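Pasting as-is:
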Amino acid sequence: MKALILCTTILLLGSFAALARTSHSTDVASTEQKLRHIEANGQAARPDQTPTVFSEPEINSYLASDNVILPEGVQSVKLAGEPGIITGTARVDFDRIREGTGSSNPLLSIFSGVHDVVVVAHAHGAGRQGYVQVDSVSLDGVEIPRFVLQLFVEKYLQPKYPELGLDSRFSLPDRLDTATVGPHKLTVTQK
């Protein structure tokens, strides 16, 4: 977790660092417990329909943990939720993502080197289907035109991850029926 206060003494800094590690660990454990519940509930003949709520700190701590293997070249993923909208930030090494594939298309040359990436997408789940519509992507604060993003996705991402796209629809696992992005949280129900 990020330190919120700069400390003037080593003792104070050490206390906040210990508190941050404990909070991170608690959020990861809470997320793991909720994921185990969802998996077990999904196997039940009649799943409990009580919503499961993941907080933004839980999700981000889990993403930062060793429990999630990010694609090569992707680091420091953080998500923020607002009603129906997810904003994701990450540090991306595009040379590692593009490794082994080349392109003579000059439009794709912007996808080289290491950049701070921000993705804004509408997302929800309904009727056991997940829906994600990417609204915008920016590299180092510069928004990338949608047709250039589509070229990048088709050339570099879909060969490795065929289910990915700028507009994606996919089956939700474990009998998840709905997924609702709210202010700094994700709520899922099973059916």
